[in-house]
Write a structure and sequence with these properties.
Blueprint (H helix, E strand, L loop, with lengths): L1 E5 L22 E3 L2 E5 L1 H6 L8 E2 L3 H11 L4 E2 L9 E6 L4 E3 L1 E3 L5 E7 L8 E6 L4 E2 L2 E8 H5 L10 E9 L8 H9 L11 H11 L2 E4 L3
Parallel strand pairs: 1-9, 3-13, 10-14
Antiparallel strand pairs: 2-3, 4-7, 5-6, 6-12, 7-11, 8-14, 9-10, 12-13
Length: 215
């Protein structure tokens, strides 16, 4: 296994197009009577070449899948209700995963990384490789009230897509750095408590897996 150090890298209803806070436009669908849209965060993160999982269809098609599967949603990790963060299971077709199992031949790269301005940097380890078709997928959405706590709303909707989890395994754990940031209420995190088992599962999984290096 080879590890390389690198300097920081910056990182139905007919849909309508309301004006966002930044003045851009975005498709909006309704699900269970609530309005749903992509967040700016997810639009910039979940696309080919970023090192994160992505959907090979259009943004509108993914919103349609969220709409179709809305009744199957469940509370996000660490949540107990459907009011703050929800996970909507998806059919895995057209979802691409950037999570790989690490072995002795995997070339790894470590870098100082922050997701966006205002967050503390941390050491992130990524691997060389190519995205693969996912076996499991889910979409994570945050409610308007949850996003408003950190002034992170980018759409005037009830829910925003924040994360796409596409994985070779079912119920891929959140990475432990994100969990720590959330539990401590650090910049970029949304305060929530996790159980010891959830933290241990995350550390166990990500000690043996890695995300792909951005292209």
């Amino acid at each position: 296994m080879q590890v390389t150090l690198q300097r920081p890298v910056p990182l139905r209803l007919t849909p309508y197009a309301p004006v966002t806070r930044e003045g851009a436009k975005a498709d909006v669908f309704t699900a269970g009577g609530d309005s749903v849209a992509w967040s700016d965060f997810a639009l910039g993160r979940h696309k080919p070449g970023t090192g994160y999982s992505y959907f090979q269809g259009s943004q509108t098609e993914l919103l349609g899948l969220v709409q179709e599967n809305w009744e199957q949603r469940r509370p996000g990790v660490g949540r107990t209700t459907l009011d703050e963060v929800v996970a909507v299971p998806m059919p895995s077709a057209r979802f691409m995963t950037t999570t790989i199992a690490v072995d002795s031949t995997t070339e790894l790269m470590a870098l100082e990384y922050r997701r966006r301005d205002g967050e503390e940097p941390y050491v992130r380890v990524t691997a060389n490789g190519e995205a693969q078709p996912a076996q499991f997928a889910q979409v994570i959405l945050y409610s308007k009230d949850t996003l408003a706590k950190n002034d992170e709303r980018s759409r005037m909707t009830d829910w925003e897509i924040v994360t796409i989890i596409a994985s070779p395994v079912e119920n891929e754990p959140m990475d432990p750095v994100t969990m720590m940031r959330n539990m401590r209420g650090k910049a970029g995190g949304t305060q929530v408590n996790y159980t010891a088992d959830q933290l241990l599962d995350s550390i166990d999984f990500w000690s043996r897996h890695s995300k792909l290096q951005p292209k």
